[in-house]
């Protein structure tokens, strides 16, 4: 790692630290709920280490409690996590030229926080090389991944000593707002956000995260149509 890449890595690490106040209580809560759902310690830690996605993990746990079938649980988790595929596609222009082993690690650590912080930094620093972008991405992931896993382990070990009804359910949406609100800089972005809010509320009663998936698809379509119309008007 060059001195410049090391400097950018540390910058990314600092960018990941502000998420600790949200990650720690949610990791603890996941560990507690995993034990309450009847998972063994190894099963709970296997889920949190392989998935690293709180929303889908909580969805899967709830469906386990409801005695849903295995394939329905998998389908629901995939539906909730489908946004990660969108994140991966959006990262290709920035990181697509990186070596395969680095792209594999990026895929593992690609979640809301690493994606949002990294893309914002890439847009603000268009002169960064691919290796420097990789360094920043891994810097953001460095504090997040081990803290999420460690907090889940502590929650699983402590179990009932941590109250399940912590009132921390507000923290996750606040995190999403803090991540993406500064990125709403254009009219297509605002249109997509408005459509996602409206249809997210309308589809809130759909099962297995399908409402979120449908709202996201409609929001992307609305944003793309708005951008296309603006480009056509600009050329006319």
Automatic annotation (TrEMBL):
Species lineage: Bacteria, Pseudomonadati, Pseudomonadota, Alphaproteobacteria, Rhodobacterales
GO BP: L-valine transmembrane transport
InterPro entries (alphabetical): Brnchd-chn_aa_trnsp_permease (IPR011606)
TM annotation in the entry: 12-34, 40-58, 70-95, 134-158, 170-203, 209-231
Pfam families xrefs: AzlC
Keywords: Cell membrane, Membrane, Transmembrane, Transmembrane helix, Transport
Keyword Transcription regulation: no
Compartment(s) where it occurs, according to its Swiss-Prot or TrEMBL record: Cell membrane
Membrane topology: Multi-pass membrane protein
A single Gene Ontology CC term: plasma membrane
Similarity remark: Belongs to the AzlC family.
Identification of the protein by name: Branched-chain amino acid transporter AzlC
Coiled-coil boundaries: none
PANTHER family: INNER MEMBRANE PROTEIN YGAZ
